[in-house]
Design goal:
heterodimer; B: alpha+beta; six-stranded antiparallel beta sheet; five-stranded antiparallel beta sheet; 14 helices; 18 strands; 24% strand
Chain lengths: 152, 486
Amino acid sequence: MGHQLQRQILVIDDDPMDRMLIFRSLRELDLDCKLNHIEDGQAALEFILDERNAAIDLRLVLLDLKMPKVDGLEVLRRLAGNPVLERVPFVVMSSSAINTDIESAYALGARAYITKPIRHDEFRNAVHTLGAFWLDHNRLPTTPHNEGVDPA
Amino acid sequence: MTAFDLLASPVLVVSDFDEPIIAFNAAAREFFGIEDGATRFFLKEHYRMLLDAELEQALANLAEGRSATVLALVSDKRQHWFRAVVIAQPLPPRSTGSLGAVISVQVQHEDAGSTRSSVPHTMLENLVWQAPNVGVSITPDASLDKLIWNDGMYSLLGIADKTIEPSRELFLRHVHPEDRSVLGDLATTLASETTKHWEGDFRLMTAKGQEVLINAWVISQLNAQGGRGMASLIVSVEDELIASREAAASRRELEKFTYTISHDLRAPVRHIESFMTLLLDSLDERLGEEEQLYAAYARQSVQKLAGMIQGMVDYSRLPHTLTDPDAVDLASLVGVIIETQFADSAARFTIGALPTVVGRAPLLEKLFAHLISNAIKFSRNNPDSPIRITGERTAGEFSLIEIEDRGVGFESQHSERLFEIFQRLHGVQEFAGLGIGLALSKRIVELHGGEITVLGQLGVGTKVVLSLPYASPAQRPNETNGAVPT
């Protein structure tokens, strides 16, 4: 059933260096999962909402907040009420530690909020923890996308 | 009997100030005890200017056809002296060039000093009466509903024509409609006891439609006739308000700036740190001893920079005002901090009775965590001497708390510098740290209205003394407030 679906982690971040650091750490996990990136919120929305991408089994979205055109909070806002927010964990990874950003992100449906650590070892740990938690340990409710699929 | 005689208050007409020919109305004759032909020495006998300069000013006003208001002492037929507000309206100029005026005397209350000895006191009164931007309103007798305003009052209300009769209604018309209830029935309130005062802030709407925040001070006193007089003083606090608004705005601006700068610095610093780490990891085998040292220095510096940026973020994010202060039990707060944050430390503690204070638990937690961490760090050379944390209530509304260690101490002449951000007294090699803890601690203590000082002696130890507002038992809704949520 689900095996024709393609497992994917989507990183929405306009900073190529951050994307490189995130990908590098995710690859170390050996997750059997395609890593995809999109550089701004507008393109990310188009990708997520495009029905032609129905075959993609999005497992995790790592979302930056400060981006040109459509920022991270706006992405969440425009997805309000869309079942994708329930099906796919959106995790904010931002430089911002502002309380209002954190509160807004959770209120808009983010599942977790990570302030990007400055030290590389901590940054790497944070990404490892996220990847392992959302792709290996955590169970999401059964949907047509993951029905019968045992990710382990 | 003429209309002039019907005026209830003493009124005199001075036809010429050089050769006074004075006419009195009935009330004036009654009050001053004037008989026909006995007017020659009137001014000398019954009238005292409080300030000679004021007379000159008044005469100058009259010469220019303007009215003059002065405070004076007048004596009645019994030779009892009263303070009075004297209003002189100029008579139409005459061909001889001499000066005349209709002078009405608003007797206020009997002057206890009854001689000129009261001048220094009334100089103060004059000062207030003449001060620009200070509005004074005097109601000699509340029941007569007659007001006298100084020029300052007219200016504050934005009324250019100072001949307009002052009245309570006119004043109320200039009070912001939403604030009229603040004043309430002031006359009734103040009349209810022998002497009372009222103070309050409200907004005035000037004649030009400008809104001005003012502070008012009103007193009520019995006057000589047994009636009740009222005196009000109003000053504009608009300038202060604007100044404090501007100060707050520029402070907010500065902090936003600090926050943005430090926040935006995080990404490049993170990238330098990360890619250098990756670079050095992959070069590892190929680096010589000296090159490894350079690399270690570079990484240390980046990490220090990262710490300083975080410190700036923490510092700029401290609140400016204490919202929703609570009763915080310091004994349990300090206990939890030591248990959760310093359990691994070799340091020993002696903790005395600690008070319950009024404040914000998360901020106080930060404060004590910094101070305890400092005490541990600087007494590492002497881990067997316990760190003492004690508290006592002072005579006032504050509790004094002391945190004392027997560590390396410092030279006491440097104690003020300790509170500046990024300030350190010890070399980096001796003690790690960025010099943020005490700067943050000072802000937190001051936010609570307290003070903090550090006493030290090199090689002996350090004592931090701070004050925090004491929470009376009535301010402690429950005893679990000190507990820190984990």
